[in-house]
């Protein structure tokens, strides 16, 4: 009797009992003016708005999104989080982000489903082994967690991995960041949206920015499909389209956009409780809470704004994954997709003021965008509020492309995760 009641209660709630629930965030009409406008309603833009309100008391803010919240790259990534970057500047910024992730669910009172299951980077040859060892030592000098594993330790941690001597891709060892892992991408976007809305930030969806208005070298607002909205400060946070939006203000950024593909398999019982990456064979894999094997590879070899998958990438990626983990050979792929990544020449982001007074840009994160979400919003809010960079993002200004002080992280991005 109790069981039958529970079933009918569940059906009642699923079908219609939730009607009248309060929305997670408001859907207001745009006001004529704001103190600041954020273009882009993904994780980075929402985080920026949240920290502008929370850390700097600037609550008269609009987040303008041409589609729906989290409908761009935030909802199209493979959710990996880590801070094991080679260069000091990158390691500090990404570890700030990781530390914010570690307390994010409690801070914004929204479960982002952070799972610090560990991230393994495999070494398949002596060059890999030496490079990974160098990276581990650099990371540890910065005070962040990273360690080397032997082949035997890797096999014990991931029994399904082919570590045999006659493996197609021999495993000579690996690096491990235990604090790395995954989080729920939608949860991050929705959590920041609700938290920002709670401070009075206006989140305006289905509103495309069509122009950036300037007067005398200073930004004064934006033209949108819902009319002119004025503001003395505008932040561009439009992953995948940063260069396109910046061009509205007459800026040409050193950014190229590429498709980045990923896919998931049918669900199976738990077999993988960490993230496995291989830069040498361009593949990485983790298992979702639903049992799906989530897989990705490197970016496409051509610039494009297409958000669809291609057979060639699927074939190459599956050939590598099956050799690494043979038991997956009979799984069926369920979904494939692509996001658009903005990539700078040094594979590091731009989080900076621009030559246009009152205009700021946060983009070019390449394949590192999701893991950098909280830290990106935190430092960008500081930059917009105080009109100067925080020490964490000071190395990531536009000026580095004229001074030559680049932060070459192509190795850290090796497998586009």
CATH C-level class of the largest domain: Alpha Beta
Rg for CA atoms: 22 Å
Structural class by SSE content: alpha/beta
Regions with little confidence, pLDDT below 50 for 5+ residues: none
In spatial order, strands of the major sheet run 5-6-4-14-15-16-13-17
The oligomeric status of these chains comes to: single chain
Tell me the CATH architecture of the largest domain. 3-Layer(bba) Sandwich
| Discrete helix count | 11
State the fourth-level CATH superfamily of the largest domain: FAD/NAD(P)-binding domain
**What portion of residues is helical?**
25-40%
How much of the polypeptide forms β-strand, as a percent range? 15-25%
Q: What is the string of SSEs from the N terminus onward?
A: HEHEEHHEHEHEEHEEEEEHEEEEHEEEHH
Let me know the largest β-sheet.
8 strands, mixed
* Count of domain modules: 2
Query: What is the terminal-to-terminal distance?
Result: 50 Å
Description:
- The chain is an alpha/beta fold.
- It has two domains: 27-80 and 86-108 and 185-254 and 346-403, FAD/NAD(P)-binding domain, CATH 3.50.50; 116-179 and 257-343, D-Amino Acid Oxidase, Chain A, domain 2, CATH 3.30.9.
- The protein is 30% helix and 23% strand.
- Strand 9 (209-215) and strand 10 form a beta hairpin.
- Helix 2 runs parallel beside helix 7 (185-198) and helix 3 packs across helix 10 (373-386).
- It starts with a helix and ends in a 14-residue tail after the last helix.
Features:
single chain; 417 residues; alpha/beta; FAD/NAD(P)-binding domain; D-Amino Acid Oxidase, Chain A, domain 2; 2 domains; 8-stranded mixed β-sheet; 6-stranded mixed β-sheet; 23% strand; globular
